[in-house]
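Hey, can you fold this?
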Amino acid sequence: MSSMKLASIDVGLKRIGVAICLSSDIVLPQTAILRKNRNQAASEVSAFLKEWEIEKLVVGLPLHAKSSAEMERRIKHFVSLLALTIPVAYQDEQSSSLEAKALTQGIFRHKKDGKIDSIAAKIILERYLVSASSKEVGSSNK
């Protein structure tokens, strides 16, 4: 697996979950970004990507949700506000928030502090890494 520094975001209306993968395939959820407005959230995400010297951004998209077209439009618009100079990959985020809740059941109370959002971002990035490594010929997975 390449040692490219990756980050993923799970764009929500109130919070943006964030996770990073700086080496191999260890994905770490980060503190979610609270979204007061689009421009503030975009500038915080941009600052985060610069701070970690991220080389590629993976963005969760709800490809199979009922309102997916509207959400996809919003998410892609948000990504356009980031004015990125790095490549962006979109990854299906189907049920990542539900999976995040299930994974953390009993570990911490589900407050509105963005932990779930960032664990969803972690799941999105892990899925991306799995699909990317399965495209690399002869790569072994777990």
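Oh, and this one too while you're at it.
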Amino acid sequence: MIQRGGEVVIRMLENVQQRTIEPLIKATIALGTMVYTDEYAIYNPLPDWGYGHKTVCHGAGECARDEDGDGFCEVHVNTMEGF
């Protein structure tokens, strides 16, 4: 996890399951925060856990998306992928 312009939190997990990532997300990310991910289904419950959630669909060739037409791609995961 990385806050744009902020710190990185990285952990080795025993497995990649919703029950494994939920406590880490809740301990690291403030409720109400908008979280950007790829389309991996493990992140689907983020809104139920109290977070905003937007995705990019790498499977469809999408790397980033400009949602408001200002020329700046607000929705992307490039910061973490670059890390």
